[in-house]
Amino acid sequence: MAKLKLTYFDFHGGRGEPARLALSIGGIAFEDDRVAFADWERRKPDTPYGGLPVLEVDGQIVAQSNAINRYVGKLADLYPSDPWQAALCDEVMEAVEDIASEIGATFNLPEEQKKVQRKTLVEGPIPFYLTRLQQRLEVHGGRYFAADRLSVADLKVFVWIRHLRSGALDHVPTDLPDRVAPKLVEHYERVKNDRHVKAYYVKHGITG
Ligand SMILES: N[C@@H](CCC(=O)N[C@@H](CS)C(=O)NCC(=O)O)C(=O)O
Asked: Is the shortest distance between the CB of 69 and ligand 1 below 6 Å?
């Protein structure tokens, strides 16, 4: 078995969390390398594109969260083998990436600008992606985004909804997903209640 090291920031969310979850669900041993924000400037030049996550596999590095998600999804049997279902899984991960990038662009703005930009996101792009993802979920049976079973796409959406509802995003109402995409919140609960996902958060001391 290859030796895996997944490097991401030291919090329970973001672009690295779906891969952490997938590896844990699959029972695949990996080094969970968590970078403290204070160490990031020093470590940034060692990454291929100046961002995290990165995954080291037997000493070789792969970057880009969705490439990592696909790779670990294959290892953990959380990525569809059927090409069409795989495309549906990819579609959803890229859609989350689109809106996550828009939200990410507000992180380092001065407070007033951040407030304005987040208000714009709350009035347009965030509800847009929530409702469209909900539609795509329903088109494909309403339970999971691809192949009617848990995949890395579900984990990526789960992590995004968890972030939106967490209160960690200033100026984004925590009840936004519940108001505009209740079926997506049901999906979030479905993933959250998966026994492996539950066990992962219990192991990390996170409840609720
Ligand atoms: N397209 C990349 C984006 C990577 C990215 O921007 N990651 C953020 C964390 S979620 C980051 O490293 N931010 C710190 C920085 O850009 O200096 C991916 O999907 O992995």
From this structure: no
Task: Tell me the best of 11, 15, 33 to mutate to test the pocket of ligand 1, counting ligand atoms within 8 Å of each CB and taking the most.
Answer: 15
DSSP the chain: ---EEEEEESSS-STTHHHHHHHHHTT---EEEEE-GGGHHHHGGGSTTS-S-EEEETTEEEESHHHHHHHHHHHTT-S-SSHHHHHHHHHHHHHHHHHHHHHHTTTTS-HHHHHHHHHHHHHTHHHHHHHHHHHHHHHTTSS-SSTTS--HHHHHHHHHHHHHHHT-STTS-TTHHHHH-HHHHHHHHHHHTSHHHHHHHHHTT---
- Chain segment 93-148, per-residue pLDDT in tens: 999 999 999 999 999 999 999 999 999 999 999 999 999 999 999 999 999 999 99
Tokens of 172: 């984004």
